[in-house]
Amino acid sequence: MKKVSRERLVALFGRRLRQLRKERGYSQERLALESGCDVSYIGLMERGVKAASLRIVERLSSALDLPPLELFIFGDVRQGIETDALREKFALLARNPAAQNMLSVALDTVSHYAKRGKD
Fold first, then answer.
1. CB 102: neighbour CB atoms within 10 A?
2. Contact 7, 13 (CB under 8 A)
3. CA nearest 17: which of 39, 54, 38, 43?
4. Which residues of the chain have pLDDT under 70?
5. Do residues 92 and 107 share a domain?
6. Same structural domain for residues 64 and 81?
């Protein structure tokens, strides 16, 4: 496994925090209010200037209504998890003959519309 520097981890955490906050439509002020953190500290974390303690991670995850681990699932990790989940679903479908036919029709339909969008 590739080692990640502390600075890189703090920056990744900050970007993830900003992403999750925006997905929920929260301003930095609202997240600060909900989590009991100072608004300037939220900004410093999002910019990767300050690291969050475990206590702060817990408060942020509670304010965002998600498990603490979600704050640490960065793009490349998330993509791998989603890819693995899709592979598992396709493997299950491939074992069922009726599902194979439905899957084939669905994929053909998606492919057809994707090609139309390029034209």
1. 11
2. no
3. 43
4. 1-2, 76-87, 90, 93-94, 103, 117-119
5. yes
6. no
